[in-house]
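Q: What structure does this chain adopt?
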Amino acid sequence: MAGKRVFNHRIVVAEPESRFASPRVAALYTWWRAAGAGGLPLRRQFDIVEHRRLAPYLFLVEREAGGWRFKIQGESVIAALGVNEMGMAVRDVGGASYGEALEAYYDTLAADRLPRTCTGQLAAYGRDFQRFESIDCPLSREGGAVDFILGVMDTAL
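A:
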């Protein structure tokens, strides 16, 4: 899909007092806080077996030398977006301006090392707008820089 896909959205840093519309978003945030224990969780701490109910709603983005790349997208994420972007460079998705803006957002999230939630409306391939809530949680490979963004996208609100 060319161009913008997210409309009327609001992005905020997730805080302990945050209220989430999606129990799935809340579950990932709760895990992130506990796993990080005041710091940045490691990617290897997330075991999909322990979070299998979240699997269809999960996505994982990895930082590579040339930018960010989608590594995992659950079935519900693919259905909501109307396209499977696994393996694609973030800057190449949804048209140049959308992909570049999303990559810049991930860079900011990695620099801040704090999870963010996004709420708004999602448009995908001619379908009516659907409400969504998502969370983007930074993870590290070895405890230093942010190497991954683990998230949940939920349209069942």
